[in-house]
């Protein structure tokens, strides 16, 4: 798989710069010329039309999702594809210009806060009102443990891919 440095990507004005991070990550920080196409919503045929004989340089946060996107594009016949080494983190570290938006809380952090609040509430209510409230932290704990067990199939999908958690398409 072909890779390019952040400096090479910045200097090639002809290339289509493709950002495959989530919309929340993109809003937080992105390059001025990047086209947002989250990995989960990547359609190689559409990108081939957009690129129109230009190289496609793909970036994400550090490079992992960009590699997945590049593989998907190459399997569909798009050949002039390269991954930007180090992603947006390397871009920022090199001092290249970025557009900064509002920092958003990650989905994982939101889930942790909600789970912690439920456990704390269940414990307080269990001690102060009635022991039946201890069922709340029990369910939360079970819900957190089951997905990481090898045979646990309770939550097969990752949160960003679950129905209702994807960003709506732009009109």
From TrEMBL:
Keywords: Membrane, Transmembrane, Transmembrane helix. It holds the Pfam family Rhodanese. SUPFAM superfamilies: Rhodanese/Cell cycle control phosphatase. The chain crosses the membrane at residues 113-136. Coiled coil: none annotated. Residues 11-100 form the Rhodanese domain. It comes from the Bacteria. Signal peptide: none annotated. This is Rhodanese domain protein. It comes from Pedosphaera parvula (strain Ellin514).
């Amino acid at each position: 798989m072909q890779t390019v440095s952040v400096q090479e990507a910045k200097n090639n004005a002809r290339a289509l710069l493709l950002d495959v991070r989530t919309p929340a990550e993109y809003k937080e920080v992105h390059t001025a010329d990047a086209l947002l196409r989250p990995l989960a919503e990547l359609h190689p045929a559409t990108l081939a039309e957009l690129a129109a004989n230009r190289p496609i340089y793909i970036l994400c946060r550090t490079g992992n999702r960009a590699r997945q996107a590049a593989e998907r594009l190459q399997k569909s016949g798009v050949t002039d594809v390269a991954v930007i080494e180090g992603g947006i983190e390397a871009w920022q570290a090199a001092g290249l210009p970025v557009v900064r938006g509002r920092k958003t809380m990650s989905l994982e952090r939101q889930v942790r806060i909600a789970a912690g609040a439920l456990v704390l509430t269940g414990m307080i209510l269990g001690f102060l009102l009635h022991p039946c409230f201890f069922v709340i932290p029990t369910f939360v704990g079970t819900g957190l443990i089951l997905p990481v067990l090898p045979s646990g199939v309770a939550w097969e999908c990752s949160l960003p891919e679950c129905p209702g958690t994807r960003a709506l398409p732009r009109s």
